[in-house]
Amino acid sequence: MKLSRKDILGIKELSVEEITLILDTADSFLEVSTREIKKVPTLRGKSVINLFYEASTRTRTSFEIAAKRLSADTINISASTSSVVKGETLIDTAKNIEAMNPDLIVIRHSAAGAPHMLASLLRQSIINAGDGAHEHPTQALLDMMTIRSRKGRIAGLKAAIIGDITHSRVARSNIHGLTKMGAHVVVSGPATMLPRDIETLGVVPCVRIEEAIKDADIIMMLRIQTEREKQNVFPSLREYAQYFSLNPKNIVLARKDCIVMHPGPMNRGVEISPEIADGSHSVILDQVTNGVAVRMALLYLLTGGNS
Amino acid sequence: MKLSRKDILGIKELSVEEITLILDTADSFLEVSTREIKKVPTLRGKSVINLFYEASTRTRTSFEIAAKRLSADTINISASTSSVVKGETLIDTAKNIEAMNPDLIVIRHSAAGAPHMLASLLRQSIINAGDGAHEHPTQALLDMMTIRSRKGRIAGLKAAIIGDITHSRVARSNIHGLTKMGAHVVVSGPATMLPRDIETLGVVPCVRIEEAIKDADIIMMLRIQTEREKQNVFPSLREYAQYFSLNPKNIVLARKDCIVMHPGPMNRGVEISPEIADGSHSVILDQVTNGVAVRMALLYLLTGGNS
Amino acid sequence: MKLSRKDILGIKELSVEEITLILDTADSFLEVSTREIKKVPTLRGKSVINLFYEASTRTRTSFEIAAKRLSADTINISASTSSVVKGETLIDTAKNIEAMNPDLIVIRHSAAGAPHMLASLLRQSIINAGDGAHEHPTQALLDMMTIRSRKGRIAGLKAAIIGDITHSRVARSNIHGLTKMGAHVVVSGPATMLPRDIETLGVVPCVRIEEAIKDADIIMMLRIQTEREKQNVFPSLREYAQYFSLNPKNIVLARKDCIVMHPGPMNRGVEISPEIADGSHSVILDQVTNGVAVRMALLYLLTGGNS
After folding, report:
1. C293 φ/ψ angles, rounded to the nearest 5 degrees
2. Per-residue pLDDT tens over the stretch B217-271
3. Which of A229, B41, B154, C176 could be stapled to B181 by a disulfide with Cβ–Cβ 3.0 to 4.6 Å?
4. Which residues in chain B are contacts of C293 at CB distance < 8 A?
């Protein structure tokens, strides 16, 4: 089976079949990273541009490693060294990159919709590596891959997403993905961080974290952006930790075999206690490993590979 | 035929035969970037250092893509991360790079003549990727390649270069190249941006843009450095746009089949109106595509390849 | 013979046999960098992460070139673009990198001991590319390689190390290495830059540089960190240069066939006069060339190669 779309812009647009195809392909690529020779010639002669308007280690590194393991060439462009500083529009930057004939462009941008604009204007495949507070589809795909491999399925599970739901592209992509795949999704966070119409996305909001994580199979903790402390979105980091962190006391409410996820980077002691981050429920490092496999799968499928 | 020189420092030093050799070679490399597998093994085992003391997306990316399509290894060194911050002289930095035995060094530097100093001191081939207000030879070569492919020739054409002629290395390199290849070159811009002795370079200065672009086959718009607004070099961006932009009103003075060029990044609405930038005369994105081919040709010729 | 250790953290831990193995292997790799095709397939399919928390051109470039000449893939992570800015702990960053399954991590960090922490936590091989004022083992190895190739041996030679001994990881690694290999090591520098208990490391402190370099076979000048001038560690750069620089006047005290070394970047006119830096005794650029070979040797030996 082939993926019959040019771009990966969000989970919202993907069908259950497409998600399943991507996860199956990612499962098969997982093995490459454990070989002695971690390289297959699949994308030899293809070039992948990593166009990052926001700083990122893990996502950029994950895409770069994924591309190199497929033998593609990678070129990194970061905002600080780009023509952006010279006042060029994003469209002009993108058209310029297109004119150099790369095969695929991975973009992270602070503006929601930036990858979609590129996708509509450029003939190259675009992968959204995070756009504002909108979507972060590769994160949700690696999260679903992790759940599937740990739980054997996604459908029927209870997933609790905790934190700043309003501003989190990770939350949004996972809400689309997990509900689509048949999970029961609940969210919790301070009232200032829960969108008013969140039910329209098919999820149940909970005022207290305890209610959300009760009997949960999956607990997904979001990174709290500590710089928001000054914006009066929440009283203080200390109070946030007191009411919305995952810790040894409240995790007992979840299912005994629950898994704990975090997209990283973690604020230990704020949204997650160190005992939980490093504990037996945590699959946080599996997520990172699976991230390389998911990105290999997307690079492969978007350049014409079939499962 | 072989290129019998070690370095590409400026267009001024190149003969008509050398320019023709480079453009012919670039024409033949253009096809590589349109293949399914965009890679030839020509420079396997060679390493190219991109030593950029000034930020640049398009030029650095273009060189990096060119090198990778030829299977060379590329290493990027940018000023911000370099020993420059520790007060090392350019010569010492260069001698250190030489000692690591790369095959070719691409340098961009704010000081005119920096590439020439390296060329005289190092055994490696040096390509000038822009030195102060002096030369930007690869830009002029890709411009000439674009003209030749669109017009079939350069000789006999009228080329108008508009903007800050005094501070533009793009203008300087193109003036050398286009006059050498037999074009009739006129320049225009505010009086503060036209060198007094510009006629000695074989070009005709025009006070008004209308005079310059009249019957022109080629209109080359230069980027206005908006940061100069504060230096009283011109009254205001608005006034600059009013008197020296290329727009639908004045382009009718040029030949109907004229081509419009810009080295990028563009200030839309300042030196060029969006209608013109995206219009049917524009070959601006061709320039970018040809840039990769020109750089592949230079990397190939300087490492011993022949046409 | 194989290197039976996972990591290279410091010279202190290495035996004479291990140092000799590394230097012998480096000697054999030196030739690769002089070939027409400077690439061997030894590490194809391996990936090397350069994790640099401190800016560096020469060390990072040297490792990158070394890895590429062995056909490994390289991924650069620098502090400015990393999750560090988002407050992630070094351990979490490292565990994340581990989860992406690279083969080897090169780390430079301002904190002494950072590479050791990584080595104890990660299954990957770690190479210390400089940790605070602690060790810089690859520098000492390339220095010993240079001495051995110039002098035919290390044992029995007199080596003088001059400068800020207290804060220099280069000094510390070389003191461990040179004494281990049988050299007689003396050090000199302003009293504020000489550790009180330096004799315990098996070296002789000298108040005056003249005493230290007298009859020396090897003079190793350290970079003075000019930013320390303001910290009252020494009176002024001018006074430092007057009392502790190596120059044509005092070098006559050393052996006629002495060699002069400097880890770079040099402050010409401060710790070393230009005549000496560029003079016949200088092996400073040999050090750079040998640096690539030493790093190739370490990448090779740590990934399972044998001599």
Report:
1. -65, -40
2. 999 999 998 766 667 677 788 899 999 999 999 999 999 999 999 999 999 999 9
3. B154
4. none
Q: What does B248-302 look like in DSSP terms, one character per residue? A: TTTGGGS-TT-EEE--S---BTTTB-HHHHTSTTB-HHHHHHHHHHHHHHHHHHH
- HSE of B272 in the Cβ direction (CA atoms, 13 Å)? 28
Separation CA A265–CA C132 (nearest Å): 25
Q: Where are the beta strands (DSSP E) in C145-209?
A: 158-162, 184-188, 204-206
**Between the CA of residue A63 and those of A289, A296, B130, B246, C6, what are the distances in Å?**
12, 8, 31, 41, 27
Q: Say if CB A237 and CB A231 are below 8 A apart.
A: no
Cβ contacts of B33 on chain A, cutoff 8 Å? 100-101
Concatenated DSSP letters of A248-297:
TTTGGGS-TT-EEE--S---BTTTB-HHHHTSTTB-HHHHHHHHHHHHHH
The H-or-E segment that residue A159 falls in is strand A158-162
Read off the pLDDT of residues B99-113 as tens digits, 9 standing for 90 and up.
999 999 999 999 999
Are A101 and B38 inside 8 Å of each other by CB?
Answer: yes
* Residue of C170, C190, C179, C177 lying closest to C263 (CA atoms): C170
* Residue C30 confidence (pLDDT) above 70: yes
Spatial distance between the Cα atoms of A217 and C236, rounded to a whole number of angstroms: 66
Alpha carbons B181 and B192: distance in angstroms, whole number? 28
Q: Determine contact, residues A153/A181, Cβ cutoff 8 Å.
A: no
Interface test with C, best of B43, B53, B86 (most C CBs within 10 A): B86
Q: What parts of chain A have a pLDDT lower than 70?
A: 80-86, 227-230, 232, 307
Q: In terms of Cα–Cα distance, which of C49, B60, C63, B36 is closest to A64?
A: C49
Task: Check CB contact under 8 Å for B101 and C33.
Answer: yes
Residue range B43-96, pLDDT digits in tens:
999 999 999 998 888 899 999 999 999 999 999 998 764 445 567 889 999 999
> CA torsion sign, C252 to C258 to C263 to C268?
positive
pLDDT at C83 over 70: no
**Residue A79 sits at the chain B interface (C-beta within 8 Å):** no
State the CB neighbour count (10 A cutoff) for residue A127: 23
Position C47 pLDDT exceeds 90: yes
In chain A, residues with a C-beta closer than 8 Å to the C-beta of B65 are 47, 73, 75, 100, 102
Between chains, do B88 and C291 touch, taking CB under 8 Å as contact? Answer: no
Measured at the CA of C247, the angle between CA C244 and CA C253, to 5 degrees, comes to 90
Q: Does A306 touch chain B (CB under 8 A)?
A: no
Question: What pLDDT was estimated at residue C236?
Answer: 84
Alpha-carbon radius of gyration of chain C: 19
The pair of structure tokens assigned to A267 is: 């604020």
Phi, psi of B216 (to 5 degrees): -75, 145
The three-point CA angle A61-B61-C51 to 5° equals 30
List of chain B residues whose C-beta atoms are within 8 Å of the C-beta of residue A48: none
Number of H helices, E strands in chain C: 10, 9
Q: Find residue C268's DSSP bridge partners.
A: C272
Q: What is the rounded CA–CA span in Å between residue A55 and residue A74?
A: 17
Confidence (pTM): 0.95
ipTM of the complex: 0.94
Q: Per the CB < 8 Å rule, is C86 touching A265?
A: yes
pLDDT at A81: 47
